[in-house]
Write a structure and sequence with these properties.
InterPro entries: Bulb-type_lectin_dom, Bulb-type_lectin_dom_sf, G-type_lectin_kinases/EP1-like, Kinase-like_dom_sf, Prot_kinase_dom, Protein_kinase_ATP_BS, Ser/Thr_kinase_AS, SRK-like_kinase
Protein name: Receptor-like serine/threonine-protein kinase
Radius of gyration: 33 Å
Subcellular location: Membrane
Number of domains: 5
Organism: Fagus sylvatica
Largest sheet: 6 strands, mixed
Strand content: 25-35%
Helix content: 10-25%
Family: Belongs to the protein kinase superfamily. Ser/Thr protein kinase family.
Number of strands: 44
CATH architecture of the largest domain: Orthogonal Bundle
Shape: globular
């Protein structure tokens, strides 16, 4: 086939490029008279490198946004906009007029937005490679620039002066002003604030840099750091910092619509679809938990009225409605929730107490909706008080205290640090709701009597019984599943050794090993392939089967969300095995020390969950259990990273002289209490000591002993932590953890609690119940004495 002449190929190529040139116009400076028109395809001016573009972006099925975006990335992320509150229709135009005005008008010619240059003499407009759009004079003096008028995002090389602010958009796809703002105040303090939406004024701060009098300018430098600079040019406070410079990464920091300030990076070497969050040696998002930090008497909090906020696995807030409530607008979850039932009548002539029931939600609260408060009451009293009060929409019960709350409920949050439970009042009989067990029994008795009478008086009932009996016989012989024997009085299954050998495929996949036992992964095939962890015990007490079963029964009766659940056991010949639920996220040891530093908030959740689990073992079990070996390897994490203490019953099953070391000690080196070395009876206080060590490890995100520490004073964690506490240098314990530094008051409190726990004298250590109360803020933490150092003697 003959090739086309060169001039014809050039002409065809020019024709192909013509449509594109009318949309993505040249990256050179735009002279007076230049314009862009909103049309079906995006219309824009690109920066010289093509990294950024300025022009029109269609928003969903609505109008057009005059914006700046990352043009080189697939996501086309918007970083600035002019008319978020007033989208324009197709055919609207932005023009740099002959007299130097830069104006956005709709198709009728109505002015929608206008840049306001400093002075006159605008000669051209330009989209720069920094992401800054400028109006400049002939001698390249910038008379107006988008960097001076940020919306919700800042970019590298951009600064914010006192009085400047970022305002979060209303929602993910709605660019009008939303509910939060990031402001460098005139006094030098940098704050995150709620806004008196829909007004533009601020409401109250929920995060602060605490730099009153010293902060002068927010700087986003090319190394990837965002920091607060003082008047003298010094770095006053680092806000975020990434491990990559702008040479290798595209970067942006944004106050997102959920009220969290996040720093994102995007590797220039790869092409991804979405921005990964910054991998940082310091904080990458502020605050660490938006659900808990908003503490204001007005407004709906992080999620809106009658809703509650909880952090997802991606650390983003989830806004949900409690049972009995539905979203006002499914497309705007932060708008709040409404009741889907009629509220309780206050007419005393027609009491409705029996028409409502209370639905429990653990670790949930709406802390600013109280109208009555009672101390020293039982949960049953609190329930009755709410049900009999027509104003009560929710009761909160925690630590013998009862709060009554009325709608609208505000600042809702669900978090392990909240504790207690919320009792949601719901009307019976709604199609979306179910009454609690047994509550409708009396009401249904008469109906059952009538139906029963009719059935018994007819032959239909006898025929029905015969059919039912025949069905049960067929089912019994043809469809029954193997049923494991169950220990009387408790739902523990007794497995044969062969069944567990088959479940583990011959004890093939080992999960962990210790001096007492080896743990294998197993699958109970008869239970829909239910995953389990099977612990094969060594050197067990060689007493009678009855005594072994009695001890297993005591362990099996434990029931707490922070304990691993025992499913069953094997007691066959010399074989002693325990079958536990499988924990998908492994041990705290691998979570804490096996990779990147975990989130500060999650670490504190784990600390509190461990304390609550130990408190249950010590004070709430029918038979008190001393764990004897609290350490990160024995703290497991389920699929939602909830703490599950394991091996809490092994001490009851071991031989009296079984040890982990050459001494007669139960436990693990570094975590054992000093009384183990003195041959004196041990109490639950040995677990308190071990918890104190664990708490320090969670705070500092390091092991209790590091032989290769950069400083000899830091080798032993307990000694170093106490020195830092006495010297007022607690920030050294978390020196590379900006997220933790922002929570310095909690660090001080938890370090003080840990010091109390590791006192050499067991009588000075608090009970785990008091530890929980101190961590929750119910009990004040007094100044601890010096713990005597004994680690060197180990």
């Amino acid at each position: 086939m003959a090739l086309a002449p060169p001039h014809l190929l050039s002409f065809l190529l020019l024709l192909l490029l013509l449509p594109y040139s009318s949309i993505a116009q040249s990256s050179k400076n735009q002279s007076l008279g230049s314009s862009l028109t909103a049309q079906k395809e995006n219309s824009y001016w690109a920066s010289p490198s093509g990294d950024f573009a300025f022009g029109f972006k269609k928003v969903g099925n609505g109008g057009y946004l005059l914006a700046i975006w990352f043009n080189i990335l697939p996501e086309k992320t918007i970083v600035w906009s002019a008319n978020g509150d007033n989208l324009v229709p197709k055919g609207s135009k932005v023009e740099l007029t002959k007299d130097g005005q830069f104006v956005l008008r709709d198709p009728t010619g109505k002015e929608i937005w206008k840049a306001d240059p400093v002075g006159s003499g605008v000669a051209y407009a330009a989209m720069l490679d920094s992401g800054n759009f400028v109006l400049a004079s002939r001698d390249t003096v910038y008379l107006w620039e988008s960097f001076d008028h940020p919306t919700d995002t800042i970019l590298p090389t951009q600064t914010m002066n006192q009085g400047s602010k970022l305002v979060a958009r209303y929602s993910e796809g709605k660019y009008s002003n939303g509910r939060f703002q990031f402001t460098l105040q005139s006094d030098g303090n940098l704050v995150l604030e709620t806004r008196a939406f829909p007004l533009n004024s601020s409401n109250s701060a929920y995060w602060s840099s605490e730099t009153v009098g010293s902060g002068f300018e927010v700087v986003f430098d090319q190394s990837g750091s965002i920091y607060l600079k003082g008047k003298n040019g010094s770095r006053v406070k680092t806000i975020t910092s990434t491990a990559g410079s702008t040479q290798d990464f595209y970067q942006r920091a944004i106050l997102e619509y959920d009220g969290v300030f996040r720093h994102y990076i995007y590797p220039k070497s790869i092409t991804e679809i979405l921005w990964p969050m910054a991998r940082s040696s310091l904080s990458t998002f502020i605050p660490s938990n938006i659900c808990n930090v908003i503490q204001e008497g007005t407004g709906g909090g992080a999620c809106g009225f009658n809703s509650y906020c909880s952090l997802g696995d991606d650390q983003r807030p989830k806004c949900q409605c409690p049972k009995g409530y539905t979203l006002i607008d499914p497309d705007d979850v932060m708008k709040g929730c409404k009741q889907n039932f009629l509220s309780q009548s206050c007419d005393e002539a027609l009491p409705e107490t029996d028409l409502f029931y209370l639905h429990s939600m653990l670790n949930t609260d709406w802390p600013f909706s109280d109208y009555e408060y009672f101390k020293g009451q039982t949960e049953d009293w609190c329930r009755k008080a709410c049900l009999s009060d027509c104003f009560c929409a929710v009761a909160i019960y925690r630590n013998w205290q009862c709060w009554k709350k009325k709608v609208p409920l505000t600042n809702g949050r669900m978090d392990i640090s909240v504790g207690g439970k919320a009792l949601i009042k719901i009307r019976r009989g709604n199609s979306t709701l179910e009454p609690s067990c047994g509550d409708s029994k009396k009401r249904d008795d008469s109906t059952l009597i009538i139906i029963g009478s009719v059935l018994l008086s007819s032959s239909v009932f006898l025929n029905f019984l015969l059919l039912l009996f025949a069905f049960l016989l067929v089912f019994h012989f043809n469809y029954r599943k193997p049923i494991y024997p169950v220990m009387p009085g408790i739902n523990l299954r007794s497995f044969t050794f062969e069944e567990l050998r088959e479940a583990t495929n011959g004890f093939k996949e080992e999960l962990g090993r210790g001096a007492f036992a080896t743990v294998y992964k197993g699958v109970l095939k008869s239970e829909d392939r239910y995953l389990v962890a099977i612990k094969r015990l060594n050197n067990m007490v060689s007493e009678s089967d009855m005594e072994f079963k009695a001890e297993v029964s005591a362990i099996g009766k434990t029931n707490h969300r922070n304990l691993v659940q025992l499913i069953g056991f094997c007691n066959e010949g010399q074989h002693r095995l325990l079958v536990y639920e499988f924990m998908s996220n492994g041990s705290l040891s691998s979570f804490l020390f096996g990779g990147p530093r975990p989130n500060w908030y999650k670490r504190m959740q784990i600390a509190l969950g461990t304390a609550r689990g130990l408190c249950y073992l010590h004070e709430e079990c029918n038979s008190q259990i001393i764990h004897c070996d609290i350490k990160p390897q024995n703290i497991l994490l389920d699929d939602s990273f909830t703490v599950r203490i394991s091996d809490f019953g092994i001490a009851k099953l071991l031989k009296p002289d079984q040890t982990r070391t050459t001494t007669r000690i139960r436990g693990t080196k570094g975590y054992v209490a000093p009384e183990w070395f003195r041959d004196i009876p041990v109490t639950v206080k040995v677990d308190v000591y071990s918890f104190g060590i664990l708490l320090l490890e969670l705070i500092c995100c390091r092991k209790n002993f590091e032989a290769d520490a950069q400083d000899e004073d830091r080798m032993i964690l307990t000694d170093w932590a106490y020195d830092c506490y006495i010297d007022g240098k607690l920030n050294l314990l978390v020196e590379n953890d900006e997220e933790a530094k922002d929570d310095i008051k909690r660090i001080e409190k938890y370090v003080m609690i840990a010091i109390w726990c590791i006192q050499e004298d067991p009588s000075l250590r608090p009970t785990m119940k008091k530890v929980v109360h101190m961590m929750e803020g119910v009990v004040e933490v007094s100044v601890p004495p010096s713990p005597s150092s004994f680690i060197s003697s180990m």
